[in-house]
Write a structure and sequence with these properties.
Layout: E1 17-25, E2 30-38, H1 42-51, H2 58-71, E3 76-82, E4 92-97, H3 107-118, E5 123-128, H4 133-139, E6 146-147, E7 153-154, E8 159-162, E9 171-174, H5 176-186, H6 198-212, H7 217-226, H8 230-238, H9 259-280, H10 298-313, H11 315-322, H12 329-337
Parallel strand pairs: 4-5
Antiparallel strand pairs: 1-2, 2-3, 4-8, 6-7, 8-9
Helix pairs in contact: 1-2, 3-5, 3-10, 6-10, 10-11, 10-12
The structure holds glutathione (GSH).
Domain Glutathione S-transferase UstS-like C-terminal: 199-340
GO molecular function: transferase activity
Keywords: Transferase
Length: 344
């Protein structure tokens, strides 16, 4: 179906007029704006207006515009722009956690963002607040990422919905590593798991996730909590699953400047030092910066996602320190990953 907005009132035939037409194409849920600027006469303009009153699809739209050009043979330019709440071609949706700032911050979710960017896949982000994670994911039919011991499901982000292969039955995936493997299998161009590296990369990422980040948690969890929207903060103070946590819970207390905080950073540095020694082993046959050879891979994205988390939540107290550690190695890794840090 096509609808039009009334063109600007006709003036003298010699003057330049602009007319705007909003054209809705149901098959692609797209709304096009067709702007004509011309020096045609009012009679011809009226005729062109009628063209937009009938039902048409994209092909008909094109032929309508062609007829319009023929009708308004005098100096005519047609500018088409598409404005649609829903994209015409289905694209991947990434569900991410909303913080108080408009930037993505959560390390698990950055791992997927990195892969989407690296593979140059089109995607959009849906921002979800912590208190809404379960309801949102249930509503879209996302699988739980784990089960509690009592059998209740646990819903977490990231979640990816990929309708590109079958818009009527999109793939809906949870669990970071699971999503990573799905994206690699479905979009093998520009691999993030170069041949034969899957096992070692899985081990590396497991280490980052389960060991490397552990000493960071007492520092980063309270800082991340403070950067959440107020509703999310209260969810953690009093929400189900966090009984009696209360405002005074050490989980949410920022370490005050002083020996306790310095001690915490020292424990973090030990992990960075260890990893630096490991990565140094690649100097010679690799570049010594990335985990495998000379190109970035999933392992680097897992590590750099943690760097982004620190940079976003603890720019001064955290990232400013880490930049100086291990002869600037972590800044060099950041630079290698920087071109895949787009935020859509
Ligand atoms: N096993 C999941 C864990 C992901 C996870 O813990 N996500 C957190 C945010 S970083 C989450 O969504 N938590 C939801 C909640 O606590 O309600 C994965 O690897 O993706």
């Amino acid at each position: 179906m096509m609808r039009n907005r009334a063109p600007h009132p006709a003036r003298a035939c010699s003057s330049v007029r602009t007319s705007l037409y909003s054209v809705y194409i149901p098959s692609s849920s797209a709304v096009f704006t067709v702007r004509t600027s011309h020096t045609g006469c009012a009679r011809r303009l009226k005729a062109s207006k009628q063209l937009f009153h009938k039902d048409c699809d994209l092909g008909e739209l094109q032929s309508s515009i062609h007829s319009l050009i023929l009708l308004l043979r005098s100096s005519l330019t047609i500018i088409m722009s598409r404005h649609s709440s829903r994209p015409a071609t289905p694209i991947i949706t990434l569900y991410d956690l909303k913080s108080a700032s408009p930037q993505p911050w959560a390390p698990n979710i950055w791992r997927i963002r990195f892969i989407l960017n690296f593979k140059r896949l089109r995607y959009r982000t849906v921002w979800v607040e912590f208190p809404d994670v379960e309801a949102t994911l249930r509503a879209i039919g996302a699988p739980a990422s784990a089960m509690r011991s009592d059998g209740r499901p646990i819903y977490t982000l990231p979640v990816v919905v990929d309708p590109t292969r079958n818009p009527k039955a999109p793939h809906i995936l949870s669990n970071t590593n699971n999503i990573a493997e799905y994206l690699e299998a479905s979009y093998p161009a520009r691999p993030v798991f170069p041949e034969g590296t899957r096992a070692l990369q899985t081990l590396f990422v497991h280490y980052i996730q389960e060991v490397f980040v552990k000493p960071l948690l007492p520092i980063m969890v309270p800082l991340s909590h403070q950067n959440l929207p107020e509703r999310s903060q209260s969810h953690f103070r009093s929400g189900p699953g966090y009984p009696g946590a209360g405002l005074a819970s050490p989980q949410f207390q920022t370490l005050p400047p002083g020996p306790q905080r310095e001690q915490a950073w020292l424990a973090v540095k030990e992990q960075f030092d260890f990893l630096s020694i490991v990565l140094d082993k690649n100097v010679g046959d690799g570049d010594g910066i990335v985990a495998y050879g000379h190109e970035v891979s999933y392992a680097d994205f897992a590590l750099c996602s943690v760097l982004i988390w620190i940079q976003r939540m603890a720019a001064q107290d955290g990232w400013a320190r880490i930049r100086e550690w291990n002869s600037g190695r972590w800044v060099r890794l950041w630079e290698r990953c920087k071109m895949y840090m787009d935020e859509y």
